[in-house]
Specification:
This protein is of the alpha/beta class. The chain is about 35% helix and about 20% strand. Bound molecules: S-adenosylmethionine. The site of S-adenosylmethionine has 21 residues, from helix 7.
Length: about 240
Amino acid sequence: MNKLLESHSHEDINIASTWSPPIPAYLEDIYWWTYTRPYAIAFWDREWLVNLILFGNFVRLRDSAMNELETGICSTLQISCVYGDFSSKLAQRVAKNGSLDIVDVVPIQLDNVRRKLPIGDRVHTVQCDATKLKFSDASYDQVVIFFLLHEVPASVKEKTLSEALRVLKPGGKLVIVDYHQPSIFNPLRYLLHPLLKLLEPFSLDMWKQSIESWLPKEFVPAEYTKSTFFGGVYQKVVIRV
Ligand SMILES: C[S@@+](CC[C@H](N)C(=O)[O-])C[C@H]1O[C@@H](n2cnc3c(N)ncnc32)[C@H](O)[C@@H]1O
């Protein structure tokens, strides 16, 4: 999509979206029961259920990410959607002359989110793999990655972060919210470990390594801030390019 997307027009996105990336093997192998089957979406597409999985922290984490994002005239990219509640809230905040592009690699996730969005001049959905974004360098003011990194293998974490940084304009902001290693005094640490190991095998990487460790080696952030939530179970990292 490279040069094609520079204007960010809806038409450009449709033309460039004609090539569909394959669904990554880890999604079909591990997460078919949550993301890639229509019945999975019908079951999981409930904000209260997502909130339950996050121990009641969905709104707090969502709003914490939102608070880092500008609402003025700016271009925003959300890398991965799922069930749409984060995306619909983000879409409500897009200014009149701003834009929001939402990507996901699973077409039925995008179909589902589209039903909830005011699709038009300002909000677009694009099927694409986070490791190979269909956008030109330096085309967004801000990029948000909400609970994607823990689900993907380390090589995908690295490529996703590298792509997010590539598409950001100089001075742009990357906001990441995801799992983190809970404090040793947090009882959830002992409950979550076996659950995550069983259901989301790549997520324990987030316990062992910092997000910084998956950034491109040559990248030097202008700003890097990290905060944790709920006794260390979750983290928010904000990177200024
Ligand atoms: C837990 S969700 C991410 C949460 C989401 N950001 C939100 O708004 O709540 C996982 C989503 O990531 C998508 N996904 C997984 N791997 C991807 C990749 N390599 N590129 C793009 N999307 C991906 C899945 O299809 C699924 O919709």
